[in-house]
Amino acid sequence: MGAHKRNYRRHHDDEHGQEHNSAHDESNWLVSYADMMTLLFGFFVLMYSLSRFDNTRFDLVRKEVAKYFGGNIKEISTVLEAEQKLKTALLGSGEMKGVEVSKGSDNTLQLKFEGNVLFESGATELKEAAKPALRQVVAALRTVPSVEKISVEGHTDGDPMQSSVIKSNWELSSMRASSVVRYFEESGLSSNVLAAVGFGSSHPVAPEKDAQGNPLEINKAANRRVVVQVKLLDPEEAYRLQQQQFKKQLTKEEVERQKKENELQDKMKLAKVRFEEAQRKYREQAEQKRKEQQLQKLEKQIEALETKTKSYEQKAQ
User: Dihedral (C-alpha) 242, 246, 247, 248: value to the nearest 10 degrees?
Assistant: First the structure.
């Protein structure tokens, strides 16, 4: 009876174990399925994050990578950013009166100064009162690294010159533009991007006479102006030049590193030659000293032998 119960229990346990293993085997696919769903979820999260490009974070990563490799990446400024910088600088200094900042065409920024803001009537030298405004312009432009060209244009009204020194409006406009460019250069802007152009009265912004031929002084005043055209690099071109500059900087650092390495190798060779020369002299001196000691020893032996010889000779007599 006891044996029958044991056999029954063993048979029951075997059947239960088989059912449990079968259920366990059937649920194995859930693990693989869960892994696959997790990977797909991570993949779509990554795709979503890449679809939302963050310029700020990209710039931070770009700067950190450049810093790690010892480079210095030049920033790329847009026309709107440059315009905002100039307006902020001029407004903050209270020098915005008589100055107009606007966005031009073809990635260009335009600053227009009324004629009486920078120069006295018929004069070509900058007014002292105008220099603070120009200083603010220079300070703002120096924070815009992607400047390609700064062209200063001088414009006059159509009235003929009444001066024996300045013959025409062409000379007047050119000399005024040159005065502004010279001040820009003296204030720290690179001469490589500066240019001065005189248009005389050939580019008026308003007619100087009405239909009856009467002069319009307000329009004449508007035509007397100095325009600063700031041409910024195209973003793609700026990025390409930026990459070239980065590579050039790395190349320059590599050249400096190679130069320093060559200098150290030359110093090592010189030190080795000096060491070998000192070692040779030391050996020669040691050999010379050894020979001198041998000679002294030999001389003492000869003296001792002569002394003994004399002693025997005396005894023999």
Answer: 100
